[in-house]
Amino acid sequence: VQIYGISSVNARIVTGTREDQFIRKIIFTDKITSCTSEAFYNLQVLKDIVFPTTPLSLGQKVFQRCLALEGIIVPQNVTISGSYCFSNCSGLKYAVVAGNIELNCFENCSALVKAVIGEQSSSIPYRAFASCTALEGISFLGTDEQWDDVTFKNYCFSQCSNLKTFNIPKNILEIPDNVFSYCTGLTNIIIPDKVTKIGSSAFASCTGLSELTIPASVTNLGGMKCLAIGSADNHATIIMKPTTPPVVNTQAFGSYVGRIIVPYGTADAYKAATNWANFADIIEEAMEEEVLPL
Predict the structure, then answer these.
(1) Is pLDDT at 131 greater than 50 in this prediction?
(2) Is 268 helix (H, G, I), strand (E, B) or coil?
(3) Which helix (H) or strand (E) holds 267?
(4) For a Cys staple, 76 with which of 25, 98, 230, 263, CB 3.0–4.6 Å?
(5) Residues in Cβ contact with 178 at an 8 Å cutoff, skipping those fewer than 6 apart
(6) CA 57 from chain center: how many Å?
(7) Residues facing residue 96 across a β-bridge
(8) 247 secondary structure, DSSP code
(9) Are 161 and 133 in contact (CB under 8 A)?
(10) What is this structure's pTM?
């Protein structure tokens, strides 16, 4: 069934037919300006959406649980204004959103491999890609400079177990709680040198990470399990660059960090700092850097 005209409650509200499981294609006319929450929720055979060329606002859970959707292209004139817009679309493999994304936008889209987001996305919202277990990465339609100003919200990539590496924006100041928690496939990631704080469980259960370098800018590791990387078969190394020991939680490193390497000449200061004594047995001092002749 193809829908070329969608009935509306009034001039600005579109209502879908939640019980109609025969809808395979939706074509928006230019007269439609908004969709209510759950307008097309659980249309399990819906495979194709053609968006209008005029402004359209999508409310909360508009396309949630549309299980047959395999790909979407959302143009810049379409605004995602509600949370969970495409969440639980378990067949979705690719998504291009030229405009913004909202909270939980693609959460539990377990087949999603690649996502492209627009330059209007100044942050990756709460749980936007959480539990996208096939996700290999995201692309950004803006410039490298615009990407460097993007911020992260809590849990935005949590449980993306197929992520192997990720380009964190260079100007980010904080790695929030649970951003990469349970990203078990992550093997390489660079924390930018402007980061000052790493939140609770930011890298918790990243069992594939065997080494992580903490830049000199970091002053706060106060979150529980913020650096709980490694596994029983892959004991990890944390390389600390700050010469002044950051604030640290007594459970910051979990059970599988086997070495914490601190800058040359700072081991005593680290072991004496509040809560760092808990890790004294695994703190090692880096070798003195060789000064080459001019």
Answers:
(1) yes
(2) helix
(3) helix 267-272
(4) 98
(5) 154, 155, 158, 199, 200, 201, 202, 204
(6) 23
(7) 73, 116
(8) E
(9) yes
(10) 0.90
205-253 pLDDT, tens digit per residue, is: 999 999 999 999 999 998 899 999 999 999 999 999 999 999 999 999 9
Residue 145 DSSP code: H
Q: What angle do CA 145, 151, 157 make, to 5 degrees?
A: 115
Amino acid at 7: S
Q: Do 226 and 219 touch, CB atoms closer than 8 A?
A: no
Other CB atoms closer than 10 Å to residue 146's CB: what's the count? Answer: 15
Residue position matching structure tokens 């359209």: 56
The CA–CA distances, whole Å, from 128 to 22, 41, 51, 162 equal 29, 18, 21, 16
**Burial zone of 282 (CB within 10 Å; 0-12 exposed, 13-18 middle, 19+ buried):** middle
* Distance separating alpha carbons of residues 16 and 183, to the nearest angstrom: 36
150 neighbors 123 (Cβ within 8 angstroms): yes
For 87-115, the three-class secondary structure string (H helix, E strand, C coil) is: CCCCCCCEEEECCCCCCCCCCCCCCCCEE
Write the CB contacts of 196 (distance below 8 Å, at least 6 apart in sequence).
173, 174, 217, 218, 219, 220
Q: How far apart are CA 162 and CA 175, in angstroms?
A: 20
> CA nearest 88: which of 127, 136, 140, 49?
127
Structure tokens at 92: 């979705």
Residues 9-16: what's their mean pLDDT? 34
Tokens of 97: 């959103």
Distances (CA, A) of 94 to 44, 84, 110, 137: 17, 16, 11, 11
